[in-house]
Amino acid sequence: MNFIRPASVLLLSASLLASCASKKEIKKDKVLDAMRKTNQYFMDKWPDTGKPIFTNIERPSNIWTRGVYYEGLMALYTVDKNPNYYNYAVDWGRSHNWGLRGGIKTRNADNQDCGQTYLDLYEIDPQPERKKDIKASIDLMKASGKVDDWTWIDAIQMAMPVFAKLGVMEKDTSYFEYMYKMYHHSKFVEGGGLYNKVDGLWWRDKDFVPPYKEPNGEDCYWSRGNGWVVAALVRVMDLIPTNEPHYAEYLQDYKEMMTALVPLQRPDGFWNVSLHDPNHYGGKETTGTALFVYGMAWGVNKGILDAATYKPVIAKAWNAMQKDAVHPNGFLGYVQGTGKEPKDGQPVSYTSMPDFEDYGLGCFLLAGTEVYKMK
Q: Are the beta carbons of 317 and 368 closer than 8 angstroms?
C-alpha cells in the first residue's frame, strides 16, 4: 500500500473536511463528564496511591505508566479544581518520598517521568522535597556529558519535559541545551536517526529502522510511540520561551507530524496501532489517538494549527473515543497494552484489559483537557 506523503496532504483537504463535516460538534460539558467519569473509576480502583503494581512482576507505583496518568490528572486539575485530584497526586508523591525508581543515579527516562508531576506540585506548593530528587537526577545526567540514553522514542516524552520545566524553574538554559543534545541524538544519530522527515513520523527504535518493514511493505510507525513524541514536543514548547535557540526546530518537527497524521486517521475517528499498515493489527486504539488529539488541540488552542483544518479531525477523534471507548462505569476500552510495536499488548478491544490501565487514562485526560479548552 502506498501512503500519501505530507506534501500531498493539501490535495485531500476538501474531501477530508467534507468527510468530517457530518460529525457532531464537541460538547464541552460532555468532555468534562467523560474525564471525570474515567478518572473517578481509576481513583476508586486505586485508593492507595503507594500500592505496588503487580503484573508479571511487582513494580512500585511511581513507574512511568503511573507517571503518565498523573500528567493527565494534573492537566485535568487545571480545568477542574477538584481538591481531591490535588490531594491524590500529593499523596502519591509523598508515598514514594518524592523519589525515583532506581534512585537519583538512574538514567532511565521511564524512571524520571514521575518528576513531571513532582515539579507540577512543587510549583503549586514549593516544598523542597518535591523537587530535590528529580533535580538531583537530571543534574547528574547533565554532569555526565553523556547524551545517548534516549534510544527509544517513548523516552523523549518521559524525560524531556522534566529538563524543560527545570530550566524554567531554575532560570538555567543549560537544561534546555542538554535536553536538545539528547533529542538531537535520538532524532539524527540513534540507529542512523529515528525521525523520517520524508514521512513526518518516527521509528520506535533502531530495530524498526529500514530495512525493517511491515507486512504490507511499508515502514513501521507505531501509533503510541509517535504519540509520545507529539506529547513531548507539546509539553516542551508549552514551557520554554519561543526565542529559545531550538524552539523553531521543535515547532517544525511538530508541524510535520501533525500534517502527516491527518490523512492517516481512520474513517471511524481513531488511528491504527500501525500508522502505515492498517491491516497489521488494525482497529480502534485509544492511546495513540488520544495523544494525537492532545497535540492537535493544543496547536489549535495556541493558534499554531489552522482551526478550520484540524478542528474537524479533533472532533471526529474525540467523539469517537468518548462514544466507543468510555464504558458506563468509566473503564477505558481499546487501550493497547505495553510494548513497542503493533503486535504487542494485543488483543485491543472494547472490553480487553491492558496489563497497565493507568497510562491510557493519562493520555485520555491530556487530550480531553486541551479539547475542553478549545473555543
A: no
Torsion of CA 41, 368, 248, 115, to 10 degrees: -20
Look over the chain and give the mean of its residue pLDDT values, rounded to a whole number: 95
pLDDT at 6 over 60: no
Q: Which pLDDT does position 24 carry in this prediction?
A: 73
Q: Which long-range contacts (C-beta less than 8 Å, at least 24 apart) are formed by 189-194?
A: 189/148, 190/148, 190/150, 190/151, 194/153
Beta bridge partners of 58: 54
DSSP 357: -
Q: Hey, CA dihedral for 51, 52, 56, 57, is it positive or negative?
A: negative
The x, y and z cell numbers of residue 336, run together, are 493497547
Positive or negative, the CA dihedral 169, 173, 177, 180 is positive
Spell out the residues 6+ positions from residue 278 whose beta carbon is closer than 8 angstroms to its own: 1, 266, 272
Q: Tell me what pLDDT residue 3 has.
A: 53
Element (H, E) at 195: strand 195-196
Q: Where are the alpha helices (DSSP H) in 302-374?
A: 307-324, 358-373
**What distance in Å separates the CA atoms of residue 103 and residue 246, rounded to the nearest whole number?**
30
Contacts of 168 (CB under 8 A, 6+ apart): 239, 240
Q: What is the C-alpha radius of gyration for the chain, rounded to an integer number of angstroms?
A: 19
Average pLDDT over residues 169-186: 98
pLDDT digits (tens, 9 = 90+) for 147-168: 999 999 999 999 999 999 999 9
**What mean pLDDT comes out for the span 205-226?**
98
